[in-house]
Amino acid sequence: MSFITSWIGETWHLLAESSVYVLFGLLIGGMLRVFLSPGTVARHLGTGRVMSVLKASLLGIPMPLCSCGVLPAGASLKRQGANNGATTAFLISTPETGVDSLAITYALLGPVMTVARPIAAFATATVAGLAENFLGRKLGDAEITADLSCPIDGCCDGEDCPEDEHRHHHSFGQKLKAGLGFAFGELWAGIAGWFMVGMVLAGLIGALVPEEFFAEYLGGGMQSMLLMLAVGIPIYICASGSTPIAAMLILKGVSPGAALVFLMAGPATNVTSLSVLMGVLGKRATAIYLVSIAVMSVAAGLALD
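User: That's the sequence. What structure does it adopt?
Assistant: Structure tokens below.
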């Protein structure tokens, strides 16, 4: 009974901790839907296997969204015409960094880690996005066709109605109302089931892995990095929340490189986000996403050390 209680408690704690970020992510996704033109998304993130990924990687670096909060925003971009590679890159670079986490990184870990963190995030996101665009689909597959119709009330198809003209069709209030309706309607409905399954699994991991596990087995070196990777992938922790933990681990003797592995793998992955990704992008894209993060995190850790 105590294990069941612990499991429920961990799940509830994760729900409470992530709820604000998920709500924020839904709002971002809804606003992207109505204020960011589908044509703009399709042009910049839907066409081209390379440039779309580079743009998505850069777009995600300053945004303050965690691995759960970024899911609605990424799903919204996907529905507006972003290709799988660009969506993958955005889903990696966004939770690994952010203006808030970089400020905390500078305060607790110094300038070297502050520079290394966004560079590693950009490199990881780019490699994963390119891998998805070049390996995740067969050669000759057609580019994604975006739905260019008006996302507010379908007043035009987006083809015979220039964007400059369409901007004046709806007031700010109408766009805001439509964005909220999309965020808490269609968008949430598309990820809610996978999100709850992932939360339950994350709670199970939290109940099974003891807190003293980190301090006891993460002494440094390649073994420490691999173990940090194994621990960081399934747990839920935001970029800002992972920074004090990394600082504490370094003080206890963990190498900066191993700490960087945790800073990259922890915020970018957890069982909740992976379960949602399988629903949004598919199993193959999720596998490329996970392998890219694992390989690039260890490579970045070795380079930093």
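The chain is about 75% helix and 0% strand.
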